[in-house]
Amino acid sequence: MADDTHPDWWTTNQNIREEFSLPEYDPPKFSDGCYTHTVISRLEQEHDCNISLLGIDTRYGDDWEVRIDGITAGLIGRYRNDKGNTIYEMTSSEFCQLIAASLKD
Fold first, then answer.
1. Of 18, 41, 65, 70, which residue has the fewest beta carbons closer than 10 angstroms?
2. How far apart are CA 64 and CA 43, in angstroms?
3. Where are the beta strands (DSSP E) in 12-103?
4. In this predicted model, what pLDDT tens digit does every residue of 85-95 receive, in sequence order?
């Protein structure tokens, strides 16, 4: 850990932003304010799987894929807020429901 409250990758991103006088870094969140990395980590442990959010050949504004163990489970919208941080257009509860429903199939 880089400090007592943030993982190394968080601190690295914040340092880059400070170097270029950019707004404070805040990791991607769901629309309800929950950090995606904490929700995804918990779901991966609960379901023994790998969950990823990714865009392939996307343009800004295009939906990204939600993948479970490499298989597409659904799509998720996203945008950047006024500080340039990513917000996913789904609540953490909706995301958890998507994952649970996909794993039942």
1. 70
2. 19
3. 29-30, 51-54, 64-68, 71-76, 78-80, 86-88
4. 999 999 999 99
